[in-house]
Amino acid sequence: MTRFRLHRSDPQPGRRPENERGQMLVIVGVAMVALVAMVGLVIDGGFAWSENRAAQNGVDAAAHAGAIVILENHIGDARTTGDVWTATADSAAENGVDLESAQYTDVNGTPIGAIDAGSTSPIPAAAQGVLAQGTRTHETFFMQVVGIDDVTARNDATSVTGPVVEPGELLPVTMPITVTTCDGQNKAEITEDPWLKNVQYVFPLCGNPSGESGGSYGWIDWYKSGGAPAIWEQVCDPNPPPILLPGWYEVVEPGNVNAANLEDCFNDNWAGKLIQIPLFDDKCKNEPPAGESCTDQGSPKWYHFPSYAVIRLDWAYITGSNSICNVANGATSCLVGTFVDGVIGGTVGGWDETDPLSPSAAYSVQLID
Questions:
Q1: Measuring CA to CA, which residue among 154, 155, 151 is closest to residue 44?
Q2: Helix (H, G, I), strand (E, B) or coil at 156
Q3: Percentage helix, strand, coil, to 5, in the chain?
Q4: Is 71 helix (H, G, I), strand (E, B) or coil?
Q5: Closest by alpha carbon to 258, among 224, 226, 231, 222?
Q6: Whole-structure pTM value
Q7: Cis omega (within 30 of 0) for bond into 359
Q8: Cα within 13 Å of Cα(42), Cβ side
Q9: Which helix (H) or strand (E) element contains residue 270?
Q10: Which end of the chain offers a freer environment for a tag, N or C, measured as fewer CB atoms within 10 Å?
């Protein structure tokens, strides 16, 4: 039997029908849109993440600014609810955030009432913080292809203020914010190395660096009340003035205080315990204008304290030269102990309504959420 196989002839070999070519164009177009959308998701998504971080930082700063006004009011500079709103909103605007709302909180961050713009009402006695909520909107780049023209990040933050409750008493000693040694002539030599946590140091109590006038970098006479006796009294029974971090403070340098009573006060009261001392990052002959660094050098009487150091004191060597302090650097007195932590602000406690400036002489503004 003869079999035949029929073949369909193509008048134009290699050419697709018109309807197939149209389908391919549609598929390619859809694929291109999907590809652009995927690229947009990666690029715009990364940018959105960055903008969200910036928005969070802006809201954090806004809450912090509002809490500072509450603290100023508490320690004696009269402020109103409108002042809190203005500080919060201005800080948000400076960071590219639109402030939507602000509320007072207690020390735990629980809202206790709205903060209204322009209000002349006094700040509530129970207010210890600010909850700020704000938005930041940015345009997309590639996602506009699929109809997403912009993305809005909405963030909130809570900052509270009050007396510092970090462990240890604030003692009348100060050091730079970076590791300090002596130059072989009992003069301070400041390095760029940070103090490291949980490391034992010999903290030298040197004089000012060569070429600088004034007393020791170490000792502070908070109340300008008379040199060595005032210092050991403050070490035996600390009663420092209120300190708001960060800030400029006028102090008196009594010089290199080599006194047996001072050494006894340290070791009898604080050996084996936690102490706090202010750290400084600038010093000045006179207090600089707000927001500016020092341009008036000379015998330093003003110190800028940005933070505290928490130190577990092993022993104080004050009364004269010894091999423990003089680690080939000429130091004649020192503290030996472990640098536990550098506290910027510190953990906040509740107001003491019976005595607003007690029990702590140090106040802080702390971001808690």
A1: 151
A2: strand
A3: 25, 30, 40
A4: helix
A5: 231
A6: 0.54
A7: yes
A8: 5
A9: helix 260-270
A10: N
